[in-house]
Amino acid sequence: MILTPRLLGLLKLGLLLSLLGAMTAVQAADPLPSWNDGETKQSIISFVDKTTKEGSPGFVPPEQRVATFDNDGTLWAEQPIYFQLLYAIDKVKEMAPQHPEWKQQEPFASIIKGDTKKALEGGKPALMQLLAATHTGMTGEEFQDSVKKWLATARHPETNRPYTEMVYQPMLELLKYLRANDFQTYIVSGGGIDFMRTFAEGTYGIPPEQVVGSSLKAKYEMRDGKPVIVKLPEVNLIDDKAGKPVGIYQHIGRRPIFAAGNSDGDFEMLQWTTAGEGPRFGLLLHHTDGKREWAYDHPSHVGQLDKALAAAPKEGWTVVDMKDDWKVIFPWGNLKAASGQ
Fold first, then answer.
1. Dihedral (CA of 32, 182, 189, 165) sign
2. Residue 234, exposed/middle/buried by CB under 10 A (0-12, 13-18, 19+)?
3. What is the 3-state secondary structure (H, E, C) of 266-302?
4. Residue ranges of the domains in the chain?
5. Separation between Cα atoms, residue 157 and residue 38, nearest integer Å
6. Which of 23, 42, 77, 249 sits 20 to 30 Å CA-CA off 9?
7. Count of CB atoms within 10 A of residue 158's CB?
8. C-alpha angle with apex 14: 10 to 17, nearest 5 degrees?
9. Alpha helices in the chain (DSSP H)
10. Under a CB-based contact definition with an 8 Å cutoff, are residues 173 and 32 in contact?
11. DSSP 8-state symbol, 6
12. What is the per-residue pLDDT across 251-266, written as a single tens digit (0 to 9) for each?
């Protein structure tokens, strides 16, 4: 064979395409590219392989492959305070001109003055007052529109990023990986169900019907000749701690085989999930990276992790060390680079 310049060019092109194909195959073979290779990553992959391989002793039918994820601190960040609380604070400031009485009424007075810490010193009663003022008395559609507008313009105080960009890239990959293997992924969070349903599908690929969260009571009524659902200032479910298994039972109707959380508020969800028959997986995210995110566990004003971390070895839960197990934290980089530190 005579290697003419044209034939040589075709051979080089074929070799290049083969190399690109091989590189693509290697990339496709890694379902969790933002996770460092190691025991944690391998335990997740092994569990998925075991539960999805037909004929395997651990095979689980697709309809039973339910995976539940906490939101705050598990799928997106929760510092400096829960994002839904930041929404409520911004709404109080927006609504203040229509409520002159708030200038002398706590916790509203402190929020108007910009002293969030003092406003929250009132504990649960103060929090319930904030939620009642900013989350009720309106229709479900009005509330969702309000949240969507806020998410479109509000920015994280340290990164100046939209809150929907404060998501964890490794967890986005995990959600996608599970769904590719016929798992149904649900959010089960202490956050408000109506609040999370406004962004869950666009941010995580989780539709609103697969979101379980804390909820207020509601009623059906006619307004201006149209039927609407109105949010009431009465608690329906606090989807936190022991409330999480209850929320799963009431909304999903199946015990998960995979559950992920990051705090003691997720203890009962992980415990109930992994106590079931057959293969089970409990994942506990430990915030250990003070350089690329925040390092915290106990004590902490958000995402306190103490009881669940101590119980993890006995319960057989996989603890994700954010610093060691993740190559990258956010899709856009890391916290310190974004904030100029």
1. positive
2. exposed
3. HHHHHHHHHCCCCCCEEEEEEEECCCCCCEECCCCCC
4. 35-80+167-338, 81-156
5. 34
6. 23
7. 17
8. 135
9. 5-29, 39-52, 83-95, 108-113, 116-119, 123-135, 140-153, 169-180, 193-197, 200-204, 243-251, 267-274, 307-315, 322-325, 335-338
10. yes
11. H
12. 999 999 999 999 999 9
The SS3 of residue 339 is coil
| Chain segment 61-115, per-residue pLDDT in tens | 999 999 999 999 999 999 999 999 999 999 999 999 999 999 999 999 999 999 9
Confidence (pTM): 0.90
Six-digit token string for 231 = 């949010």
Residue 57: CB partners within 8 Å, gap ≥ 6?
A: none
Which residues are within 8 A (CB) of 220 and not within 5 positions of it... i.e. 6 or more apart? 227, 228, 229, 230
Phi and psi dihedrals of 168, rounded to 5? -90, 115
Q: Are 266 and 273 in contact (CB under 8 A)?
A: no
Mark 62-79 as b/e (b = at least 16 C-beta within 10 Å).
eeebbbbbbbbbbbbbbb
Sign of CA dihedral 116, 118, 121, 125: negative
Q: How far is CA 140 from CA 67, 223, 227, in A?
A: 27, 13, 11
Query: At residue 327, what is the residue type?
Result: K
Architecture of the domain delimited by 35-80+167-338: 3-Layer(aba) Sandwich (3.40)
Half-sphere exposure of 61 (CA within 13 A, CB side): 3
DSSP 8-state assignment for residue 265: G
CA distance 147 to 91: 10
Which residues is 223 bridged to in the sheet?
A: 226
CA distance 284 to 135: 30
Q: Note whether 107 and 88 are within 8 A (CB).
A: no
